[in-house]
Each structure stands twice: as C-alpha cells, then as structure tokens.
Specification:
Oligomer: single chain
Keywords: Membrane, Transmembrane, Transmembrane helix
Strand content: 15-25%
Protein name: MSEP-CTERM sorting domain-containing protein
Number of domains: 5
Shape: globular
C-alpha cells in the first residue's frame, strides 16, 4: 500500500485514463458538434479544458516528484480527490446540456460523455483515497481500527441528517421570503446537499479503507485472532453473496436486485474462482520461500478476477451509501472494493517478504506472470472462438470451392451459444451486455465490433451443428405505410468521349394514404446488362442532396438509424446481380419527394419502374452496336444482343448430378435413398451422359467418377445439416470454371427438403446454367419436383420443362474452343475474357463506362471466387469510390446534415476493417447495435440518484406527518 504514493501511479491511473477519455469524447464531439447549440458547445469545451488541465497538472506534479524521487503528498491527494469529485458532479449536473434531448440522436453517440467521465475519472479518485490512507496510516506507528469503523458506519447517517436540515431551512427561508424565488433556493440546497454528499462519501471510503488497512497490517491483538473470520467474510462470503443476489438466487428474479442486474455472472466459473481466490488469500503465509513464491504466483494469477469486479463496480461506488440506506443488501456494492484492498495488501506483503530472499527479476517476473494469467487465458479463449467462427463464416459465405475446409463443430457450437446469449441479453440488462467489459472485448476480438444476424446464426447452427432451430421473424422492414410513384421521366444524352449514354431517371413519389402517416417509398429496378449507376440525389427540404457512395453495410446501418428518428435519408443499393433497390423516407401527405438516378449505358434501353416504362437513349442517334466491346487486354467483354446473336449455336448433353443427403437427420435412410436414385437412373435423360454424385451434409464430397456411389453413401459421415445451397454452388462453380459439352441437371435426394439449408436464390450464378434455371428434388414419392435457381428456390416451380430437354445455347468466343456458354436470348451479356485472371480495379481506364465494365467484370469473377473477398474487398470498394460507380459492395446514401455524414464515415471505418460476412444489424431492425462501453451504466447511475431522492422525500413527508 505505501507504494501507491509513488508518482508513477499518477501516469497509470490519471494521465492514461484522462487521455483516453479526451480521445473518446473528441470522437463523439467530432460527429455531433454541428448539431449542438452554442451553449452545449461551450460546455463541451469547458469540460474538455477542465479534464485536460486536471491531467496535465497531475502529470506535471508526478513528473516533478519522480525527478525529486519523492512520494506524492497528502495535500496533493486531497486536492486531487476533491477536484475529481467536483468535476464528476458538474459533469453529472450538466449531462443533459452536453447532449440535449431531441437535438442529438442517441445512435450517433454510442458512449455518452457522462459514462466516459465516470469510467475514466474514477481511477483517479480511488487512487487519491488509497494514497491518503497510505499517507496517514504508516506501518511503524500504532493505529486503531475501531474509530475508523465507527466513522465509516456513521457517515451514511450524514446524508439523511444533511437532507433534513437543509429541507427545514428551506421551508423556513421560503416562508420568510428571504429568497427571490424557489429556483435560487433549490439551487443552493442542491449545491449544499451535493457538497455534503461528496465530502461524506469521500470520508466514508477513507475511513472504511483505513480501517481495513489497519486490520490487514496488524500482527497482534484482536484483529489477528479474528483475521481468518473477517478474511473469509471479505474474500469468500461477500463475493459469493453478491453473485447470488445479482443472479437472483436469494430474492428471486423480480426483486430490485433481480437476475443479472450488473451482468450475467451465473457461470459456475465465477463461483469457483471466487472460492479459489478466497482460499488463496485466507491461506496462512508460508515460512518456506518456495511455497511463498508459489503463493505469490497463485494470488497474482487470481488478481485479475478481483480487479475485474473492482473495475465493474467502480462507477457505482458513489451509490453505495444511498444503496446502504435504501436497500439492505446495498453494502454488497462495497464488496469488490474491500476485496481489492485486501488483495493488494496481501500482494504487497508477499513482495516485501520475498524481495530479501529472491532477486528482483524472480519476484517481479513471478508477479508479472501471475497478473497476465487470466487476461491471457481469456484472450486465448476468445481468439480460439474467433478462428473457429471466422473459419465457419468463410466456409459458408466466402468459400474456396476448390479447397473446402473442415470446421470444429463442437467449438463452433459453443461460440455461437455465447454470441446468441450476448445478443439476446443486449436489450435486457442495465449494463447493456452479457458481461460488462468482457462482452465488449469479445465483440471486438471475435466479431470485429459488429454482430451476427439471426439468419446467419441459424444457418451456421443448421449446417455444422445439425440444429433445427426455426429462424425467428425479424422486425418489419418498412416503417409507416407505403408510398407510391407519382411521376417518372428521363433525360438522356450521348457522350461521344466514352461512347456511351448518360441518362438521368427522375422520380416523384408521394404518400398513398389520406392520413398523415410517414411512409417509405421502396422499389426494385432491373437494369439491363452494360448499365451502371454513376450518381444519385434526393431532394431534402429545399435543396438537392447528392448521394454519398459508401460501404454497403455502413450505409444500411446509418439509413436504418436515421429512419428510426423519422429523418430524411435516401438509399440506393444492389439487391441482385442486375437489380437496384431504391428507398426514400419519409414521404408525408404534405409533400412530393423528388429523387434521381444517373445511369451509364452502352446502348439505348428501357426500364420498368413500378409498372411504368421509361426509355433511355435514342437508337436513331447512334447506330446499332454489332461488335464486342472490351476493356484493356480483353479482360472483360461486353456483348450486345446483335454481337451475341452472331455467336454459334450448340447443344450440350445433360447429365444427372445427384446431391445425396448425408446429414445427421438422414442417418439410417441409405437404402431408401439408393432405391430412389436407382429408380430415377432407370429413366435416363435424352442423350444424357453418365450420372455424377455428391454426398452432402455440412460439406460437399464429390464421388469420383467410376466409384461405387452406393458404397460411398454407406460409408459417409452422417453429420451436420443438409447444406444444399453450398452443394449447388460448388457444382455450378465447376460448370462455370470448366466449360464442357455437357451440363449438370441438379437433383437433390432427401426426405426433408424443408430442413435443407438453401439460399433464397442463385441468380448471381446464372451464367453457370444457361440452358435452364431449374433444379429438382427427388422426394420420398420418387417424383422429380422442379424448383427455380433464379428466384424463390424453396418454392415449387409452377411450370418447368422436363429435365434434360435439349436447349440450344451460344458458344463464346467459338464452338471449337468455348470459354463460356450464353443463353440464346435477345439480352446483352458481360463475359470474362480472362477467367483465370483477376481484373484489377485500381487499373481502371479513364472512360467511365469502361470503368463500370471493369468493375462489373471483377464483381462477376468474385462471385465465383468468394475466397478472395477478404483480400480484394477493400481495394474493390476503394476503386468504386474513385470511379463513383455503384457496385454490390457499395451504396449511394443521401443524408440530411454533416453529423449524419460524420457518423457514416465512422461506421464505414469500422465495417471496412471487419469480416465481410459479419452484420451491422438484424434484417429490418431499426435499433442501434454498437456499444463500445457498457452504456446502460448511465441509466443505473441516474436510477440510483432518483431512487435516493425519492426515498429521502418519503422520509421528509413521514416526519412532517
């Protein structure tokens, strides 16, 4: 404890936290400052200056004492404690002024400055009190613990007495008219009461910690005789009691201290560590140096447990006195502090005893190794969770079809359970997370500060664990009522420089309801091949706001948060390979919203928007395009309809590719599946080739040609779920990568197609099935039931051609050496001239339309090579930004003010550095999802203060009666 007066501690408990607080607050202020009124801006500047002066002043004093090799003085500690207390009180008093309600949307400020202040300034306050205790309790002088205990016990009564006296004075002053108005007296009463509360709180902790310090330092007398008893109470009894109360084991789940009030500490590990920590602290100090060194290692290893709860409850220490007054178990708020003092005192005694026996390196090394034990263990556990989760995400959402990997299913199940528990408890805990700080650390290390949607959680569980958990219903995506298209018109001009058309499609939308509802306009527009989105605008108020091209997940998140505030955003994003989704909100009955989309297209074309046909370009101004158009080096080629019609027609031979259900749910069904397939093979496809087979569960295992497929099925590992979507994509990938004179007719063989994990559609793989978009399900009845690859894959197709009906397709560039097969339609096509080479987005030409063609080609290549996503995604997005052309990874977002734009930039930095398969929110969920710190703590602070005031008013009323 005397070492706490070392000036180095100032840098650790004040300089570093204050710097972190200033950086965090500056990050929040830089986003919202344009929304703040001048009074709030002044408050931010004043508090920032005060915190800066506090940090610089304390750091300067610490540096001076360090150079002089002298400890910090008692007066300095007292001034630091008072200054920090006053700053925290003023920060709490003006908390609403920093972020005025109704002015700054709370989603823009994930961590409020009030919580930042309490979190990062409390270490300074606690250290100043501990240093004061060390200053006035030297080990070489006799001290008595009883007077300090008495003062600590009597201090809570000072709150009640002070409130009663000030209330009576206020009553007399109000009746005599000594004050101009009630506001002056209320202000004076508040100041006096807060001052009394601050001084009494500081004195309470001073005397309490001093008494405990004296008791732990005694070597004889009453405290030594009863040391084991009170050590057991502080190190074992109070922690276990606190866990039981917090987890609802004593007072039930509906009490004031209900289940998980401060977090979910119900894991058996917390109870086990509490008992082990208490046992090590209560164990008598060994006289044998090796055993004492082992004790130091064990006690320091569990110091992380003590320190964790100390940090968790640190912001709530000011509530301990009103909690003791109002709630019988309120003293449990003090338990982590008492345990912390005992633990620090014991470690100090161990170090003092061992320094004379072992070298400084051995002692300090043992202490450092022990202190790192729990943090390293937690980090290693979380890092393992990260590796397992990200491997599973890669296998499902960014797979390498050529080299599939196996996943640790048991480890993944545990990781998904933790993620689900954290996300489910996010909105039900006052602290805002499953485990304070640890959940934030888990979210940062494992989830890159993002989340997993329920759809992806369920998919991963179904694929690798074999779970049949139903996918929960998400919140409705469209707030209010739908709006409608009132008018649409287009303006086109031909740009000779880039030899392409530049068109503006302008839409006027209005509310379709007579009532005054805020409606959202939403429509999907199918773009023809060779057409790119290059600009977007939305009229907000009286100005035309140009869309910002941003990373797609960040734009979706910001749009959802703005919609939840009933503000004015517009969003334009890809919802399919050639489909864009336009959203405008809000649309009221009193206004007509105007929005526009700029398109670059090589040829004249027509769009259909909400049933209205819009013509773009004029075929009479420019002659028809009959030759292919390619980027440099023929990397990506655009084939007009006329150019495609000039390609040779060929007919490929079909063959059955059976996808056999080898999941855990189909174990024991081998014979039935075999009989069904053999019956189908008895009805060969017209001019069909030899059938192929793949075993499908969590993985797709192709059966080598010429191998007995039935024997392979009998020897299969019946595990996981039926991941039919992955199997279809792998077969289509092979068909795309290796063009052949044959093509697969996909047949899924399963008894429970409803339990298959299947994509909503495979439209992005359409170039791999030019003959037909049908796949089939061979069910228990032995009938081939057609489903669509292009849309709504789970639904049965109403009308589909029989399997294997001859269909002619176009061979590109020639029938002799084809590199792709194209459907025989009148639509243009984009094909890759170099399918094995990655088009480089950074090498974009100056021609905007050709730049769009290059980006489209890369997007198409990346669809079949998702394993490159993590490596190539950010450069691809940056190329989209430079070109100003929309891609599947980006969105156009029209925003109302600079604060929204700053929030978008902050979110974009987060999503750009995160795994591409992670999410920013649930589908259709309009609630904020990020909490860098445990934001619910501010609610608890406010609730505690209000509860204290309410109870004291009750006492006043009772006394008056």
């Amino acid at each position: 404890m005397p070492s706490l007066r070392s000036p180095q501690w100032i840098f650790l408990v004040n300089t570093a936290p204050v710097a972190a607080a200033l950086l965090l607050c500056y990050g929040e202020y830089s986003v919202v400052h344009t929304l703040l009124p001048p009074v709030s801006v002044a408050l931010w500047q004043k508090f920032g200056l005060a915190a800066l002066l506090l940090g610089v002043g304390m750091a300067g004093y610490a540096g001076r004492q360090w150079v002089r090799q002298r400890p910090v003085g008692g007066w300095f500690c007292a001034v630091a404690a008072l200054a920090t207390s006053v700053l925290l009180c003023l920060l709490t008093w003006h908390g609403d002024g920093l972020l005025p309600f109704g002015v700054v949307p709370r989603w823009m400020v994930p961590t409020e400055p009030l919580l930042i202040g309490w979190t990062f300034l409390m270490p300074t306050l606690v250290h100043a009190l501990l240093a004061l205790v060390a200053k006035f309790t030297p080990d070489d002088r006799p001290q008595s613990a009883l007077p300090n205990i008495a003062f600590a016990v009597l201090t809570p009564l000072g709150w009640i007495v002070a409130y009663q006296i000030l209330s009576e004075i206020g009553h007399l002053a109000g009746s005599s008219g000594a004050y101009d108005g009630p506001s002056r007296w209320e202000t004076l009463t508040t100041v006096l009461f807060v001052g009394t509360a601050v001084l009494s709180t500081l004195s309470f902790f001073f005397f309490l910690v001093r008494a405990l310090f004296i008791m732990t330092g005694r070597r004889e007398g009453f405290w030594v005789d009863t040391s084991l008893v009170w050590k057991l109470v502080i190190t074992v009894g109070l922690p276990l009691l606190g866990l039981a109360v917090n987890n609802g084991l004593l007072f039930g789940h509906n009490s004031l201290l209900g289940e998980g009030l401060f977090g979910d500490f119900s894991s058996p590990w917390f109870y086990a560590l509490a008992m082990l920590n208490g046992a090590l602290l209560c164990l008598p100090d060994s006289s044998r140096p090796p055993l004492r060194l082992a004790q130091l290692l064990g006690r320091s290893a569990l110091f992380g447990y003590t320190f964790y709860f100390f940090i968790v409850f640190l912001p709530f220490l000011p509530l301990s006195i009103p909690a003791i007054i109002l709630i019988g178990t309120g003293f449990l708020l003090l338990a982590p502090t008492l345990l912390f003092v005992v633990h620090v005192r014991q470690l100090g005694a161990d170090l003092a005893a061992l320094r004379g026996i072992y070298s400084q390196k051995v002692v300090v090394g043992t202490l450092a190794a022990g202190l790192a034990a729990l943090p390293v263990a937690v980090t290693a556990d979380y890092w393992h969770d990260r590796r397992v989760l990200h491997a599973a995400l890669a296998q499902v959402y960014t797979p390498d079809y050529a080299r599939p990997m196996r996943i640790d299913a048991a480890g993944l199940a545990g990781t998904l359970a933790v993620i689900r528990q954290n996300q489910n408890q996010y909105r039900h805990s006052l602290l805002g997370t499953h485990l304070p700080y640890l959940s934030s650390y888990f979210n940062w290390l494992v989830l890159d500060n993002l989340m997993l949607s329920e759809d992806k959680l369920s998919n991963l569980e179904r694929i690798f664990v074999g779970s049949r958990r139903p996918i929960r219903e998400t919140w409705a995506e469209t707030p209010g009522r739908p709006a409608e298209l009132r008018d649409v018109h287009a303006e086109s001009r031909y740009d000779a420089r880039q030899q392409a058309w530049v068109s503006w499609v302008k839409l006027d939308v209005g509310n379709s309801e007579l009532a005054g509802w805020n409606a959202e306009y939403r429509t999907t527009i199918q773009l023809p091949p060779g057409c790119w989105v290059s600009d977007y605008y939305l009229t907000i108020g009286q100005r035309q706001e140009r869309g910002i091209l941003a990373e797609k997940r960040a734009a979706d998140w910001v749009f959802a948060q703005i919609v939840s505030e009933n503000r004015d955003p517009g969003l334009l994003t890809y919802s399919g390979p050639n489909a864009i989704d336009l959203r405008v909100f809000p649309v009221t009955t009193t206004e007509l919203r105007h929005t526009g989309i700029q398109l670059l297209h090589k040829e004249p074309c027509t769009l259909i928007i909400d049933g209205r046909t819009v013509a773009l370009g004029d075929s009479t101004d420019v002659g028809p395009l009959v030759a292919p158009v390619a980027t440099a080096g023929n990397g990506v080629v655009y084939l007009s309809a006329l150019a495609k019609q000039a390609l040779p027609l060929v007919q490929r031979r079909p063959y059955y590719h059976f996808l056999l259900d080898a999941s855990a749910q189909s174990a024991g069904q081998q014979q039935a599946l075999q009989q069904r397939v053999q019956a189908q093979l008895a009805q060969p496809l017209p001019h069909g080739g030899p059938a192929r087979f793949s075993l499908v569960n969590a993985y797709t295992t192709p059966v080598p040609a010429g191998t007995d497929w039935a024997a392979q099925l009998n020897q299969a590992r019946w595990e996981g779920g039926f991941y039919l979507g992955g199997a279809i994509r792998q077969v289509l990938f092979e068909a795309q990568e290796h063009p052949a004179p044959t093509y697969p007719v996909l047949v899924a063989v399963t008894d429970q197609i409803e339990n298959a994990v299947l994509d909503a559609d495979f439209a992005d793989f359409s170039s791999a099935y030019p003959e037909s978009d049908a796949f089939y399900v061979l069910g228990p009845d032995g009938q081939l039931v057609p489903h669509s690859l292009r849309r709504q894959s789970r639904q049965v197709m109403g009308a589909a051609p029989a399997a294997g009906v001859p269909v002619a397709v176009r061979a590109w560039p020639s029938a002799a050496r084809p590199r792709a097969y194209l459907p025989d339609t009148n639509a243009a096509e984009v094909v890759l001239g170099q399918p094995q080479a990655v088009p480089t987005p950074t090498a974009a030409p100056n021609n905007p339309w050709l730049t769009g063609l290059l980006l489209r080609g890369y997007s198409q290549w990346q669809t079949f090579h998702p394993e490159t996503t993590e490596r190539e995604r950010v450069p691809f997005i940056q190329a989209s930004f430079r070109a100003g052309i929309l891609t599947p990874f980006t969105s156009f977002l029209a925003l109302e003010n600079e604060a929204q734009k700053a929030a978008l930039r902050r979110k974009q930095n987060e999503t750009m550095n995160a795994n591409a398969a992670l999410d920013t929110q649930e589908k259709g969920d309009l609630r904020p999802t990020e909490t860098p710190l445990d934001g619910g703590a501010a609610l608890l602070l406010g609730a505690g203060v209000l509860l204290a005031v309410w109870q004291l008013r009750r006492l006043k009323t009772a006394n008056a009666l």
